[in-house]
Amino acid sequence: MHGRGRGVAGQMGRGRLMPNKQNLRVVECKPQPCIVSVEGLSSSTTDVQLKNLLMSVGPIQSLQMLPQQRKAIAKFKEPAHALAFQQKFHRHMIDLSHINVALIVE
Predict the structure, then answer these.
(1) Are 83 and 35 in contact (CB under 8 A)?
(2) What positions does the domain RRM occupy (predicted)?
(3) Which of 30, 78, 98, 104 is the most exposed place for a label (fewest CB within 10 A)?
């Protein structure tokens, strides 16, 4: 029984080092995406509807509609707005279609 206690303590000791390694990964700087891809749009969804949806989260720089592919690409001015839009509207229903929102790293 005494040997088992040491083994557990050794594992706990190793476990304490892991959060430090994970914290180092979080500190790494990565480019924050400002661009979102909106896929699965209904053929009846207009650019005005989508622009209003995008602007409800924050200001956008550009919006490109691709009706043949039933998708759109939008660029927000701030990365936080792109993330907020993705979190708020992914799998959201617009004009009887569930849209998929993905962040795109430039």
Answers:
(1) no
(2) 35-102
(3) 30
